[in-house]
Amino acid sequence: MLQNIKAVFLDLGGTFREVNEDRAYSLAARKRIAEILCPAADPDSYYEYINKKYDVYREWALRWTCEAPEEELWCRWLVPELPREAVAPHAKELTYCFRAAKGRRLVVPHGIETVRELRKRGYLVGIISDLVGTVEIDEWLDTDAIRDLFCTVKQSSVTMLRKPHPAIYYQALDEAGVLPADSVFVGDNLQRDILGAKAAGFAGTIGVDYPATAPLKITAENRPDGFIHDFADLLAIFPGDGVYLPEQASQEAKTK
């Protein structure tokens, strides 16, 4: 048990939000990508073509723990065969549509009410996310009217840093006004979320292991203090007054 925890930092994708299939929503996004870049193309086929290019880009981004500006993402990596002047002005919209083409992203069950309760209990809550695009998150926070719940929102697309690079964690800590020793990180990717938080000196880490997720690859290095199987499980781990009770988390991943 720790009694000095001031802030809980969350990953987004796979932790606080998840992709939900919505064919109409995805198809509209795919059609818009094709409309901008290749009007004669089949939207689904063209999206798959772009997605394969993105896989190559992602390998580069993971290797260097960084994120390219949206203009460079599209002009250098995804459609370098097209004139820059025809692509660059649409880069932000293209990135937004590229993510929407996979599905609609919604907050996980019990997500918002759990964060509200954590705030009532005295904990700051922040977000540190590897996420391409500079439009989507601001739109989501404002549309759902939840911006006030978070003391900081750090995105790789804005900072140009990707987890597990400690610098993106330090930027979030600095903006929240807390120390690593006062903070706990919650994330679903042990190799990036958990290793990065440990490297930054966080007091604790909690792994996410929801029922529908793939088996976690746990090592001695990336093992968190415990696991949650529902976002609301955090309420037992953070009862208030700065207390952190990792022993209230599942001590084994359900998939092991």
Write a structural description.
The chain has 256 residues and is an alpha/beta fold. It folds into 2 domains: 7-18 and 107-248, Rossmann fold (3-Layer(aba) Sandwich), CATH 3.40.50; 22-100. It has helices at residues 23-37, 43-64, 70-78, 84-87, 91-100, 111-120, 136-143, 156-159, 166-176, 190-199, 234-237, and strands spanning 7-10, 17-20, 104-107, 124-129, 152-155, 183-187, 204-208, 226-228. Strands 5-4-1-6-7-8 form a 6-stranded parallel sheet. Strands 2-3 form a two-stranded antiparallel ribbon. Strand 6, helix 10 (190-199) and strand 7 (204-208) form a beta-alpha-beta unit. Helix 3 (70-78) crosses helix 5. The longest helix is centred in the N-terminal third of the chain and has 22 residues, at 43-64. The two termini are 25 Å apart.
What characteristics describe this protein?
single chain, about 260 residues, Rossmann fold, six-stranded parallel β-sheet
- What is the ordering of alpha helices and beta strands? EEHHHHHEHEHEHHEHEEH
Give me the Rg, rounded. 19 Å
Major beta-sheet overview: 6 strands, parallel
CATH structural class of the largest domain? Alpha Beta
Q: What portion of the residues fall into strands of 2 or more residues?
A: 5-15%
How do the strands of the widest beta sheet line up side by side?
Answer: 5-4-1-6-7-8
CATH topology of the largest domain: Rossmann fold
